[in-house]
Amino acid sequence: MLLIHCPYCDETLPELEFAYAGEAHIARPADPSKLSDEEWRDFLFIRTNPKGVHFERWRHINGCGRFFNAVRETVGDKFLSTYEAGEPRPDVATLTGEAK
Amino acid sequence: MTHFSFAQVIKGALTGQKNWTAQWPDREPKASYDVVIVGAGGHGLGAAYYLAKEHGITNVAVIDKGWLGGGNTGRNTTIIRSNYLYDESARLYDHALDLWENLSQDLNYNVMYSKRGVMMLAHNVHDVQSFQRHVHSNRLNGVDNQWLSAAEAKAFCPPLDLNPKARYPVMGAALQRRAGTARHDAVAWGYARGAAARGVDIIQNCPVTAIRRGPDGRVTGVETAKGFIAAKKVAVSAAGHTSVVMETAGVRLPLESYPLQALVSEPIKPIFPCVAMSNSVHAYISQSDKGELVIGSGTDQYVSYSQRGGLPLIEHTLAAICEIFPIFRRMRMLRKWGGIVDVTPDRSAILGKTPVPGLYVNCGWGTGGFKATPGAAHVLAHTVAKDEPHPINAPFTLERFTTGRLIDEAAAAAVAH
Which domains can be identified in chain B, with CATH numbers? Predict the structure, then answer.
């Protein structure tokens, strides 16, 4: 079971307290009516799906109920960092450097 | 290649079993091929087999990063059925079922296809209505499916608990009698043997690291651990790793990869006559010919390539199995494993051409690709050979995510299937 750190509660808790909420940093288009079909496809359906470092949203559903972002490595499922929603994407090189 | 027959068995018995030959040679790659297929699972090997057998294209290589049939082909719970709601899916999966029926004879290899029936249990009014809608839809499409009352379901599958106070009461079931199981390893081996006998090279333990394209955008070949292999056409059938491979060709796919788990119990005497599935509580159970109960669990909620999966899912599945079949409460589980499944937003496969000339893809089978193996392989071979989709896979395009013409089995089945 994954152990996930909630940046709001500042506690590391079992995965069962959390709900996964898809890839992070996908901004809703500012002017949706201007989008082409291809741009809609990319926004709605195309995901990075990396074998490696993944930026993703989680929700502390059985806790504070808030959404936050996480950086996880998808082969070993190791969390590199979690951070509050709205913060910019952390630098992966720094994170993986720290992980070693 | 030895043709298997009763006479060969007798001959083997009389000659000390020394007359058997290797079923397929493990090849080193040639410099170039007409077609390279990435991924030596049932789908990829099957496509090579049908390319050679039906389209006369034998200068084909099937390349895998591991051993053949070592991915999801060898990790699934071997369930075969075709009772899908939508017309497009019903045609595709029923095409596969038609091929399953005669596959052992066609391949001269026993894939142990067993038409034991797949029963989908309804636990509440919504399930009843939804499954009856499936039954009607299937019958309009000529797909075998029938509605059973709770008593009829119990008669068909005696281990079922009909206690009205059960946590998950059984209110009836949809039964597809043509559905059942097959031996998954034998499917990969049978196709490998059939393809190799027709001249296809099977290259194992050779990861494909990139797909190469020429200045005109057309596919030129694949970069592998054993060097560059030129190819006029490339078909990718790499399950959970399809998006990783396709990205190297500049094609981004609407796929996310999740671990899907399964587990088996200790072996016991024959007790479970069919396949029982319970969509609303996520439990899939059948008994293998070795006697183990084969149990399918769900996908983890997060993207991962770990091939393990989380324990909470296993617990959830076993809790449901124990409620529906109390007879199994004291059984012990022997082992569990995970495979990485590629899931599309509409839970239907992507099978056909891509924006890159000469590049074809067969992916997005999610949690239910095994049942489609012969059908998917057959229409993929057609698509590669003719450079246009077979009428059966024509709706399963990549373009549907742009046009919005989805085949929304996600809503239809309510769970990944």
Answer: 25-79+85-94+97-107+184-254+346-401 (3.50.50.60), 115-180+257-343 (3.30.9.10)
Q: How many A×B Cβ pairs under 8 Å? A: 62
User: What was the ipTM of the complex prediction?
Assistant: 0.94
Of residues B413 and B165, more confidence is placed in B165
Q: For residues B104 and B155, is the Cβ–Cβ distance under 8 A? A: no
> What is the per-residue pLDDT across B124-171, written as a single tens digit (0 to 9) for each?
999 999 999 999 999 999 999 999 999 999 999 999 999 989 999 999
pLDDT of residue B317: 93
Measured between beta carbons, the chain A residues lying within 8 angstroms of B241 are: 51
- Residue matched to tokens 């949203």: A57
DSSP letter for each residue of B364-417? --TT--GGGHHHHHHHHHHHHHHTS--TTTTTS-STHHHH-----HHHHHSS--
Fold of A3-96: Folate-binding fold (3.30.2270)
Q: Which positions in chain B touch A77 (Cβ < 8 Å)?
A: 302, 304, 306
From B68, B63, B74, select the one nearest B206 (Cα to Cα). Answer: B63
Of B96, B48, B57, the C-alpha closest to B365 is B96
Chain B residues with CB-CB distance to A3 below 8 A: none
